[in-house]
Amino acid sequence: MINRERMVENFINMAKISSPSLKEREVADYIKKELESIGLEVIEDNAGEKTGGNSGNIIGILRAPGKKKVLLSAHMDTVLPCDKVNPIIENGIIKSDGTTVLGGDDKAGIANIIEAIRVIKENNFDHPEIIVVCSIAEEIGLLGAKNFDIEKYAPDYSFILDSSGKPGIAIIQTPYSAKGEMKIIGKPAHAGIAPENGINALTVAAHAITKIKLGRIDSETTSNIGVVRGGEAVNIVMPEVTLHYEARSFSGEKLDSLLKETNDIFVEVAKEFGAEFENNVVKGYSGYHLDKNEDILKYFEKACMNAEVEYITKSTGGGSDSNIYNEKGYKALTIAVGMTKVHTKEEYIEIEDMVKTAKLVVEVLKEIA
């Protein structure tokens, strides 16, 4: 039923196209042609204009008047390095040559969706109305999903093909998030002649960091400072330091409490040293937790049985376009597509997992029809 060779060729064609966030134009044009070739109505929205990108979200519709509406989505952008990707097939695995990422995150999801719709049409299977969304700028804050007018299409169920792990895995819980910059503003002075006249911003930050909670805080909550930037010269007391901070929690209340505690500690320590503190950390996407009795999970579980893959529910510490759609009131489920070691040059995907995922999507569509 699934045409393995055709799907792999389509995936490799997309993987070879460089598509960093907000520069998805070339792969978007390729996908538009693919969707048009299988008879979908294709639309490009204005998400690119809103985000400063060179492409909007690509939307394809396969009409089925009077039927339920199912949204299938995967994102077009990939993390760096993604220029001159050279996919290699070896022992049933597709990988890069080790100089770039592969881009299975998330072009494998797109290839799965296109192949599943081809199969639906070739076999004249009954199907719901299908809304395909290939989103932009997912990797830099879910910007495509945030600027997609989901209310216009009003899907009954949304399946987001964007998780590592074996086909059959359903992500039922994701965290609330916050991230941004925190800045300590001290006072410069000559480090060798009059250091006592300065306020070392790094010293202030260090004292605060020893008091805040970082790493795994509890089973639901994490906190991290991933980047530290500051300093002008080795002989100048550091006048400013910027910390790039993020926090996540399955509990919105715990996240709010952590953000307040972290802010209060930095404010207090900065005051002790006579420094200033600027906090530009903002809350991002909202988390979600799907009840195991939700219809969307029942449909997916039945599809897994029909596709002969194991149905597994999991939580994850990462976010996806599902977070945005659930926040807007539309039931969305992120499912695994088999991608492995994503965001690294060692990324790969097993062809058999691609086949299983495409078959699973077909079964989801048949089940909801």
From TrEMBL:
The answer, when asked if Repressor is one of the entry's keywords, is no
> What name does UniProt use for this protein?
M20/M25/M40 family metallo-hydrolase
Q: Which cofactor does it need?
A: Zn(2+); a divalent metal cation
Q: Which GO terms describe its biological process?
A: proteolysis
Single GO term (MF): aminopeptidase activity
Q: Which family does it belong to?
A: Belongs to the peptidase M42 family.
Where does the source fall among the domains of life?
A: Bacteria
Q: Which residues cross the membrane?
A: none
Which UniProt keywords are given for this protein, alphabetically ordered? Hydrolase, Metal-binding, Metalloprotease, Protease, Zinc
Q: Which InterPro entries match?
A: ArgE/DapE_CS (IPR001261), Bact_exopeptidase_dim_dom (IPR036264), PepT-like (IPR010162), Peptidase_M20 (IPR002933), Peptidase_M20_dimer (IPR011650), Peptidase_M42 (IPR008007)
Please share the entry's free-text remark on the cofactor: Binds 2 divalent metal cations per subunit.
Q: Which Pfam families match?
A: M20_dimer, Peptidase_M20
> Where does this protein hold Zn(2+) 2?
H343
Q: Which residues bind Zn(2+) 1?
A: H75, E246
List each copy of the Peptidase M20 dimerisation domain by range: 177-272
Q: Does the keyword Hydrolase apply?
A: yes
